[in-house]
């Protein structure tokens, strides 16, 4: 029976315990498993390679994204690094967004400087620049849409077509929307990557990543390398992620509703110089978002009109929005991009990506939207006071 996303999130992997009839899968903390006899291993022999609890959550991830297999890793960055380790050799080329997540940018930049592979950072919404990059015959193309932190939108299906024409595999970072709001594999991508730390877990108490593949051969290769280099996730982390996924749809949809209310408020706020949210009809890529997404998500960013002192007063006055990195949790977070999530990028690289020193990124939580708006309103009043 083909079920909807919310049903898959709640029921996949449930009621599978045959020993005691546990509705929730048990946590298997054993690091090793006995052999039934000489050269007769069980399905699991060592938890780095496979853990029953991790098996369950990987199955759920694959079902949610419409893939054939998934690997849960120790962090979102280890998932990105694993992909590059599997598919790129010295001399191979990676095409990545020029405004990608700061941690990804730092990894690609540092690895390319060491000669692990070559990287081309490009504005993927610039068709001519993108085609010039693809003419270099990359082995891997990373798409991040909406981008972090400016929420830029690119056409997944179109870029996948171009990339496949030059023999490249395409991986889409789907962290910002989750499979509730976007299904990259259905749009032509070969792989999807997540920082499970964010929306998939949703409670800011877990560091984990995931890779989901469309084809079995790719899924098997990624799983082999994950075991080989030891980046697979732990048993308790697998339990926490599965627990978070159960409420994924409910959380994401409520967060999105709250974000829409906050965006409506920010549009009327004179101290907001620029507002970035794909749901706005004036947002670049809005029409593409309408076509390939099932919603506009709960991430937004804006530039303050003022200077550093204005920003300091604004941030200091907030009571409900917490100044912190990360995103996707039930609590609302705000971050200063230049000194936090993208501090690993040079000032020149940030400027080229359009990231200014007064840009703030907001991850909207599940609080009452009117309370969040009141908190923002109080902070804007404080920011205006000299």
UniProtKB/TrEMBL annotation:
The keyword Transferase applies. Belongs to the trans-sulfuration enzymes family. The modification N6-(pyridoxal phosphate)lysine is found at residue 198. It comes from Xenorhabdus poinarii G6. One of its GO terms (biological process) is cysteine biosynthetic process via cystathionine. Its cofactor is pyridoxal 5'-phosphate. It comes from the Bacteria. This is Cystathionine gamma-synthase. SUPFAM superfamilies: PLP-dependent transferases. The keyword Methyltransferase does not apply.
């Amino acid at each position: 029976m083909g079920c909807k996303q919310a049903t898959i999130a709640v029921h996949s992997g449930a009621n599978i315990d045959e020993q005691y009839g546990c509705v929730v899968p048990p946590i298997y903390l054993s690091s090793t498993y006995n052999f039934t006899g000489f050269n007769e291993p069980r399905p699991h022999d060592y938890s780095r390679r496979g853990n029953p609890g991790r098996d369950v959550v990987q199955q759920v991830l694959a079902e949610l994204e419409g893939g054939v297999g998934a690997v849960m890793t120790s962090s979102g960055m280890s998932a990105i690094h694993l992909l590059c380790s599997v598919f790129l050799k010295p001399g191979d080329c990676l095409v990545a967004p020029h405004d990608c997540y700061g941690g990804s940018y730092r990894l690609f930049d540092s690895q390319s400087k060491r000669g692990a592979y070559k990287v081309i950072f490009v504005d993927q919404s610039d068709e001519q620049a993108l085609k010039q990059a693809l003419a270099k015959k990359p082995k891997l193309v990373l798409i991040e849409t909406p981008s972090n932190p400016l929420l830029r939108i690119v056409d997944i299906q179109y870029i996948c077509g171009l990339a496949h024409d030059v023999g490249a595999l395409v991986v889409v970072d789907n962290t910002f929307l989750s499979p509730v709001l976007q299904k990259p594999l259905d749009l032509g991508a070969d792989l999807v990557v997540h920082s499970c730390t964010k929306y998939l877990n949703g409670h800011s108490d877990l560091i984990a990543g995931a890779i989901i593949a469309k084809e079995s051969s790719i899924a098997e290769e990624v799983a082999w390398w994950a075991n080989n280099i030891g980046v697979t996730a732990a048993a308790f982390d697998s339990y926490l992620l599965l627990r978070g996924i159960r409420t994924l749809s409910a959380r994401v949809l409520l967060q999105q509703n709250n974000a829409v209310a906050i965006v409506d408020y920010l549009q009327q706020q004179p101290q907001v110089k620029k507002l970035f949210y794909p749901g706005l009809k004036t947002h670049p890529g809005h029409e593409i978002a309408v076509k390939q997404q099932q919603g506009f998500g709960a991430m937004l960013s804006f530039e303050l009109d003022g200077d550093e002192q204005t920003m300091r007063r604004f941030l200091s006055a907030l009571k409900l929005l917490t100044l912190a990195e990360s995103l996707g949790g039930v609590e609302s977070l705000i971050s200063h991009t230049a000194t936090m999530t993208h501090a690993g990028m040079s000032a020149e690289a940030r400027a080229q990506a359009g990231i200014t020193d007064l840009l703030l990124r907001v991850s909207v939580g599940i609080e009452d939207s009117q309370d969040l708006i009141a908190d923002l309103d109080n902070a804007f009043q404080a920011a205006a006071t000299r």
